[in-house]
Amino acid sequence: MTVPVLELKDVTKTYRVGQGFMKPKATLTAVGGVSLTVARGEVHALVGESGSGKSTLAKLLLGLIAPTSGEIRIDGVPIGQTDRREVARRIQPVFQDPYSSLNPRKSVADLVALPLVAHGIGSSAERQAKVAEMLDAVGLPRRVIDAYPNQLSGGQRQRVAIARALVMRPDVLICDEPTSALDVSVQAQILNLLMDLKREFRLTYFFISHNLAVVEHLADRVAVMYLGRIVEERGREGLFGAPAHPYSRALLDSVLTPDPDLGMPEAGISGAFPNPIAPPSGCTFHPRCPQATERCSREAPASVAFADGFATCHNAGPALALAG
Amino acid sequence: MTAPAPSSALAPAAALEAVPPRRSPTARFLRRAGRNPSFMIGATVLAIIVAMALFAPLITAYDPYDQDIARRLIPPVWHAKGSWEHWLGTDKLGRDYFARLVYGARISLLIGIATVVVSGLIGTALGVAGGYFGGRVDMAIGYVVNVRLALPVVLIALAAAALVGSSLETVILVLGLLLWDRFAVVARSATMQVAHADYIAAARAIGCSTRRIVLSEVMPNILNPLIVVATLEMAHAILLEAALSFLGLGVQPPLPSWGLMIAEGKQFMFFSAWVIAIPGVALASLVLAINLLGDGLRDVTAPENRS
Ligand SMILES: Nc1ncnc2c1ncn2[C@@H]1O[C@H](COP(=O)(O)OP(=O)(O)OP(=O)(O)O)[C@@H](O)[C@H]1O
Ligand SMILES: [Mg+2]
């Protein structure tokens, strides 16, 4: 069996958060016991509501923060044992907001060349050639090379961010909601660009989104995250055809409502997103779950295996999945 | 479903999006500055004073140290007894007042600039370190800033001058070591804002060293407020030097410091008010010009910070 590009084993990230003056600090579990494998060349999507810990997981994968416990492996090598610069050569981010992810004081040429400069690659002429090559690859006209971010549209900025991420020829791109800050008209362009680049540069994507419609269009595998935990992890057909977890079903239902752009798909589920500092007992989803039983509030569910993945639910039998 | 249409809308679509005329941040800054009256007035007055200081020997033929006991306290030209020979008059030792004023500009500017360089380096280093690293580093630096804020500047400067003796170098050193608090506070809060931006996370994910991140990602983005602080502190330092010199614990005679000129003239102020009015006006103009420049700079650079 080939070694997966990314492998997470029981990764947990907790924060100590103050609750106000003179109150004791509480523990917030942003990511709890996440195990995932991402195979080379696939698009692995991660979906979930706001606050479910998606960005925290992305930061863990990028090595920007260290896990509280658990292990992250890149090509089988634990991230802690790898040089940070080596990680940077393999994994690059594309952030959500290109208005915040590009230094406003730098020209496009400097922004895209930064990885090369930081790693001391090439002469300045060689870097310029690489930058031009990258601008071509992301579909930016070469005349923007001296422009500053504030002179570019949101879509153009995101193309610059993608060019910067690709200039080191990484294996993996971590895309944290790469289109949700953009105009609807530009979103499809950027998604198509990402898919074209995946083929051209043989990339693996870890693709974070809260828009299931986008995910269905491009993902090979989908992980559904709720309150820091993966509640279901399936192949695309499996998840969209026969979702096993009630939360996955609720997310899917909300996509099918007339206006899926209303924002977070909270419409499908009753109740508010729980406080991550004091998560509900048992299955953390039970207060909002339409199928919750008394057992759900007592016992945390174990994973139920499927042919193409798993779901963490007491009632996640295949029969139930078909009924949904 | 809002599944995106699988069309290949790459290069043509991007090319359609208009690119506004290319203008670097510097070019935009200069355009806005040109339209800001307080910036322009401050810059003009300051430029005149700087030119005076730089080209002092070309502006006046007199030596500011040349005494002429026979020609003491000649009033300026607009007085009945004045003459164009010494158009701003002479002081109690018969030295040409205009020459002393022109050479005195050198002292004031030197003090202002040198102090701001020293205090700016100290304050910015502390503030950026606190804002960028946060946690314990920030707490320790916050403590140092509080200690500094608890010290009264004038008293410390007086004590230092009394201890090690007063001289130009002492004044610069003492003020430089004292006036960094605002740099630290402003640098800290500006850095904290910038440090949360995604481009810092991106730089770290790219594999940039902390040094590179601080110098090339953080610093350019916090420079504007620091330049404004620098102008305020420069004016502050110039006034403090004048005050210390006036008290006899700053620049020592016979150097032509404006504060010292006021001090030396104070015994004649009832009968020859111009002796202190002239350096007083010069001092006020310089400080006002620097403050106007700082205000203008703040207005000119603020829109960028807000966006
Ligand atoms: N540095 C931090 N300190 C304390 N708590 C944090 C920190 N970073 C994230 N959190 C908390 O961790 C939880 C998960 O946050 P995260 O940003 O990963 O969510 P997300 O799924 O990316 O949400 P969104 O869709 O809004 O981006 C949130 O409750 C958040 O408040
Ligand atoms: Mg997020």
TrEMBL record, chain A:
It is a peripheral membrane protein. Keywords: ATP-binding, Nucleotide-binding, Transport. PROSITE patterns: ABC_TRANSPORTER_1, ABC_TRANSPORTER_2. Signal peptide: none annotated. It comes from the Bacteria. Pfam families: ABC_tran, oligo_HPY. One of its GO terms (cellular component) is plasma membrane. The keyword Thylakoid does not apply. Its main location: membrane. The keyword Nucleotide-binding applies. GO terms for molecular function: ATP binding; ATP hydrolysis activity. InterPro entries: AAA+_ATPase, ABC_transp_ATP-bind, ABC_transporter-like_ATP-bd, ABC_transporter-like_CS, Oligopep_ABC_C, P-loop_NTPase. Coiled coil: none annotated. It is found in: Cell inner membrane. Residues 6-252 form the ABC transporter domain. GO terms for biological process: peptide transport; transmembrane transport. Belongs to the ABC transporter superfamily. This is ABC transporter ATP-binding protein.
UniProtKB/TrEMBL annotation, chain B:
GO terms for cellular component: plasma membrane. It is a multi-pass membrane protein. Keywords: Cell membrane, Membrane, Transmembrane, Transmembrane helix, Transport. Gene3D superfamilies: MetI-like. The keyword Membrane applies. It is found in: Cell membrane. The chain crosses the membrane at residues 39-62, 107-133, 153-180, 268-293. The keyword Transmembrane helix applies. Residues 105-294 form the ABC transmembrane type-1 domain. GO terms for biological process: transmembrane transport. SUPFAM superfamilies: MetI-like. PANTHER family: OLIGOPEPTIDE TRANSPORT SYSTEM PERMEASE PROTEIN APPC, PEPTIDE ABC TRANSPORTER PERMEASE PROTEIN. Belongs to the binding-protein-dependent transport system permease family. This is Peptide ABC transporter permease. It comes from Prosthecodimorpha hirschii.
